[in-house]
Amino acid sequence: MSRSTESVAAIVVAAGSGVRLGREIPKAAIEIGGVPIVVRAVRSMISGGADRVIVAAPEAWVERFAQWLAAYGDRVTVIAGGLLRQDSVRLALGYVGNAGIVLVHDAARALAPAFIVDRVIEAIRGGAQAVIPVVPQIDSLRRTRKGSTVPVDRSSYLRVQTPQGFTTAVIKRAHEAVGTTEYTDDATMCEAVGAEVTTVPGDGLAFKITEPMDLVLAEVIARGE
Ligand code: C5P
User: Fold this and answer.
1) Which domains can be identified in the chain, with CATH numbers?
2) Which of 37, 43, 46, 172 could bridge across to 110 with cysteines, CB 3.0–4.6 Å?
C-alpha cells in the first residue's frame, strides 16, 4: 500500500503524574481555558490528520478520560499507561490496528498546532521512517565538567518536540528491541534499531507544560484562541 493511503494512529501519552506542577491531580487532567490537557492534545492530533487516537492514562483516570473524550466515539481509545513513558507507548502500540503510520505525542504538549501534526504525517508519507519536530536552542548552553562548567556551541543543538512520527513497522521493531534501556523519546529508540531520523520545523506552541509557569502561559494562549 502506498503511504499516501495509510491510516494514521496517534498515541497520546498522558499517564504521567506531573509532580513538577505540584497539583493533586495528574497533569493531563488539569484544565486550560476550561478544557483538560488530555482533551486538547487529542483534539490537536485529530485536527492535524490522525484517524484514530490511543490515550495512555493513569490507571485511576481511564474512565474519566474516556468520558471526556466520548464525543469522538470509537476514534479514541483510552487505556491504562505503564510505569515509564516508554511502557505507556509500548502498551498503546497494541491498539494501533492496521494503521501504517504512528504518531507519538506528549499530552503535556497540549497546544501543539495542527500544522505540525500535518507536517510530521506528510514527512512520513514522503518516505521518512522516523520524524521529529525541532526548534533552535535559544539560551546559551554550558556543560558540566569535573565540578565546573564549560561553554558549548548552542547552534549545534536542537530541542526536540512531539508529535514524532514513524512507520508502524519501525516503531514496533524499536519497542520490541528496547529491553531495559530507558529512552526519553521514541525517535532515539528507533535510531537504535537502525532507522534514520528526519527533522521538520517545530513550533513554540508545542512547548511541554512542565512547571507552574507553563500553565500560566498556556492559560494566556488559550484565552487568545
Ligand atoms: O515526564 P515527562 O514530562 O517527560 O513526560 C512526557 C509525557 O509522557 C507526559 O505527557 C506524560 O503524561 C507521559 N508519561 C506517560 N507514562 C509515564 C510517564 C510519562 O504516559 N509512565
Assistant:
1) 3-223 (3.90.550.10)
2) 37
Per residue in 107-156, pLDDT (tens digit) is: 999 999 999 999 999 999 999 999 999 999 999 999 999 999 999 999 99
Cα(168)–Cα(77) distance, rounded to whole angstroms? Answer: 18
Q: Does the CB atom of residue 33 touch ligand 1 within 6 A?
A: no
Q: Which atom of ligand 1 is nearest to the CA of 107?
A: 10
CA distances from 46 to 5, 53, 76, 113, 201 (A): 16, 8, 10, 11, 20
Atom of ligand 1 nearest to the CA of 83: 21
Q: Which atom of ligand 1 is nearest to the CA of 27?
A: 12
Question: Whose Cα sits closest to atom 5 in ligand 1?
Answer: 16
**Ligand 1 in reach of 36 Cβ (< 6 A):** no
Amino acid at 124: I
CA distances from 214 to 69, 122, 187 (A): 24, 29, 25
Show Cβ contacts of residue 185 under 8 Å, excluding neighbours closer than 6 positions: 132, 160, 162, 164
Q: How far apart are CA 107 and CA 42, in angstroms?
A: 8
Nearest alpha-carbon partner for 130 in 189, 52, 209: 189
Could you tell me the distance, in angstroms and rounded to a whole number, from the CA of residue 205 to the centre of ligand 1? Answer: 18
3-state secondary structure of 165: strand
